[in-house]
Amino acid sequence: MNKSVSAKLLSSAFLVSLVATGCESLPSSGTGAASSGMVVDTTDTATAIEADTTGGKVFKVKYDANELKNDPLINSVDITATKLPNIPTPTVSVSDVNYIATVLIPKTRINPNDQLDVSLLDDFIDEISPNARHYPPNFNSKSDLYYAKEKLKELEQWLRPFAEDENASYEVLLRAAKLNGMGRNLDLGSDFAVRGSTFIAKAIDRQPESAEANFIYGMMLSEGGGFREGKKYLLKAASQSYKEAEQSLAQAELLNDNRSAALSRLKTLQKKHPNDATIAKQIEIVEAGKYYIWDLPVTK
Questions:
Q1: Residue 40: pLDDT above 60?
Q2: pTM flag (> 0.90)
Q3: I need a labelling partner for 138 at 20 to 30 A (CA). Which of 8, 72, 234, 248 fits?
Q4: H or E segment and range at residue 106
Q5: Which residues contact 156 (CB under 8 A, 6 or more apart)?
Q6: Is the predicted pLDDT of residue 188 greater than 70, yes or no?
Q7: What is the torsion angle, in degrees rounded to the nearest 10, for the CA atoms of residue 263, residue 264, residue 266 and residue 269?
Q8: Do 206 and 172 touch, CB atoms closer than 8 A?
Q9: Cβ neighbourhood burial of 175 (10 Å; 0-12, 13-18, 19+)
């Protein structure tokens, strides 16, 4: 039995799917072509539709097994499921997966709901602080040092506009101060020292009793040669049991040629923290006649 099928009754989606398969072009029937645009007589085993009204072509959409047996797509190999002969199959494994906690801080002190995502920034600060927080910086390799410098410059440039806002939040200023302070230690230029001092002074203005802000300011001043100016900030942080402030006070006394006071302070601190290996190493440094208690071997 023959059928007469009008191409106008078929959806455009079906037409596109047929064109994508590379359907075979068949000659069109002249009967009825003028009245219907393209009406084609076909058999029950095949259906034809109009695919190109300008060219007058129709396409075959049903094939038997003999027509498909040599089709390269039908006979192709799924390389995701099958090993190819004489070709090594690569293997990939993932280990030591770490998740970074999301950290949001207010951009300004006037609108706490306007927040900044500092997740990657905080992760970077935590990563390199043991190596660059104090002077002299200490890295395992030159490549680690290079990475720290380049990444720090990139992140500092991103954060700076928020810190320079006249209404910058304490949280933004504190992080900007940390970055610039480490930039100074990494010898990235005097601008880092100036910005670091400016940002931490503003942070203390926001939160005068902050142990961390007072420690950072005191550390920057004392390690930069301002022992007397930095001492009052370090003492304020130490009065709140900020351990690192006590260590920085010892460093300041050591650089001010008061070795006995530095050693006494570290030994007193060791009694409070008997299991702290860093303090023990710092005592050894002072007893050996050296001057930089943070010049410690880097451990991973």
A1: no
A2: no
A3: 234
A4: strand 104-106
A5: 176, 179, 180, 183, 192
A6: yes
A7: 170
A8: no
A9: buried
